[in-house]
Amino acid sequence: MIRSELIQKIADENPHLYQRDVERIVNTVFEEVTEAMARGDRVELRGFGAFSVKKRDARVGRNPRTGETVQVEEKSVPFFKTGKLLRDRLNGKED
């Protein structure tokens, strides 16, 4: 599902809301999650999962095309851990 499909689905299920308002709500949620992660905060959506940021240390890598060694700098990467409810639902263990 892409962002526009999510917006359309929410708008269809909530006819009392204007589509432009639904779009603003969805965009605000994504922006807040992004900003929180940029600050290094953890974002938890109960039953769905938790977004966090992990640090990857600097290391020596290898260019796969040439085989030459290259220095890879330290970086931050997004990490998502699924919640129990989502994991159970994906594995067909609905209660």
Automatic annotation (TrEMBL):
Keywords from the UniProt entry: DNA recombination, DNA-binding, Transcription, Transcription regulation, Translation regulation
One example of a Gene Ontology biological process annotation: DNA recombination
InterPro entries in the record: Hist_DNA-bd, Histone-like_DNA-bd_CS, IHF-like_DNA-bd_dom_sf, IHF_beta
SMART domains for this protein: BHL (SM00411)
GO MF terms, alphabetically ordered: DNA binding; structural constituent of chromatin
Gene Ontology, cellular component aspect: chromosome; cytosol
PANTHER family associated with the record: DNA-BINDING PROTEIN HU, INTEGRATION HOST FACTOR SUBUNIT BETA
Protein family according to the UniProt entry: Belongs to the bacterial histone-like protein family.
Quaternary structure note: Heterodimer of an alpha and a beta chain.
Function comment: This protein is one of the two subunits of integration host factor, a specific DNA-binding protein that functions in genetic recombination as well as in transcriptional and translational control.
Protein name listed in UniProt: Integration host factor subunit beta
This protein's encoding gene: ihfB
